[in-house]
Amino acid sequence: MRAYLKNPDNPASFNCDVLVVPLYSDKKLPRAAREVDKVLKKQVSQLLGNGDFGASHGETMLLPGVLGTGAKHLMLLGLGERENMQRQQWVTAAAALASALNAAKVKHIAILSDFKTPKGMPLAWTLQQFVVQITCATYRYTATKTPAKKDLPQINKLSFLAAANNSANKKALTHGIAIGEGINLARELGNLPGNICTPKYLSAQARKLGRRFDKLSTRVLGEKQMRELEMHSLLSVGTGSVQESQLIIMNYHGGKKSQKPHVLVGKGITFDSGGISLKPGSKMDEMKFDMCGAASVLGAMQAAASMSLPINIIGVIAAAENMPAGNATKPGDVVTSMAGKTIEVLNTDAEGRLVLCDALHYVKRFKPETVVDMATLTGACIVALGHHASGLLSNDDELADALLKAGIDSGDRAWRLPLWEEYHKQLKTPFADLANIGGPSAGTITAGCFLSQFAEDYRWAHLDIAGTAWNQGGPKGASGRPVALLCQYLDDLASAK
Ligand code: BES
Ligand code: MN
Ligand code: ZN
Hints:
alpha/beta; Leucine Aminopeptidase, subunit E, domain 1; eight-stranded mixed sheet; 15 helices; binds ligand BES; binds manganese (II) ion; binds zinc ion
């Protein structure tokens, strides 16, 4: 994707495939739109006047073959009421536009960008959301399908007309592309089947990023090295699998050497059968998405490097496949984590926390400023929050607030749950320092409590993305969440410096 800020003398004669006219439901035409309307002999005002186009939120209308303009087609985009518009609505309107453009099978899009922005939303931010959403709309899953006979046209160029060519707007475009491509990388990795996207496949992807960016380097620990580090909790998850477990460490040094890094940790279970505590068969295929936390780390690292953020970031992925076998971990087995705490594995299907606890202990060596982990950790999170918000648990109010704000600003929202002492008691067992499950109630919170015991020495937050990482029902597919949230959070950190 390429994106430009253009200020032609007459936007109506600008050459493109589709000219997009964003309109609020007050139906007032901004200056550039009035010029287009004039060339079209008032066709746009007529559609608005007679109610054929109400400009309600997310409504689109394609006017094909508009004569007299430089565009092949015109597209009206309804934004709804400006007065009550929140950031989330802007993002969903941008997503509606992106899907309508996708259906129009076009390459070069131009958007009239002299609209009034809603309160509290800078123009640069609104443009960035268009870029992110339209970049995401170009993603197609093709990896394991016979190629289509003829290539359909792909959106590859975006021009914003009549917006100032200033540094904030320019940054919005480059960042929007970086974030959109980061989201698309996370989606692709999530969508790949478990027989392709194995722990070693994830290492290969991380190494590829290391080769692509000067400031990014990748190291991978295999099972032998993890055994030397005594990561027996992580290793216990992969014992039943023929795929070797991996600990992947990506180091992005965009800041000064002396600056403490921000660490991202991802759950990378490339297939979660449940292990000996085998899952029921229905929808088990969806457990190929159990590495979406890891995919979001890769997506965010790629985006951060593309944006050249002036901070240090370390991405860590705990990758394993959870399978039943004669040598697999059994319910009742006790393992010793790298931190030295013993864990009774009461349910081998609560494996995410087993790989994450060793990764969380491992990252202490980086003396992190903050640590955020992402994991498709609990089905209970879907019960609590559905598919709209990721669960957020944290030992630090300031970090939690920064992530909640980043979620709102990026349209990739999270909601916080508590980690109170009372919940910790649910992890007690007579046979080890802690159990890996906390009983049927508050499953997302007790999973968070478990992780928090390995993250006591730094500011830490956990995002449970079980409900948000992929679309359930409708067309199945990874969503790329929470890459947008993470990018916003990292960009905020970079801007605050
Ligand atoms: N990966 C699953 C959680 C999950 C399930 C995410 C369904 C998205 C959709 C995780 O490893 C798991 O199996 N968790 C168990 C924990 C339980 C055994 C305490 C769960 O949620 O049932
Ligand atoms: Mn599981
Ligand atoms: Zn899992």
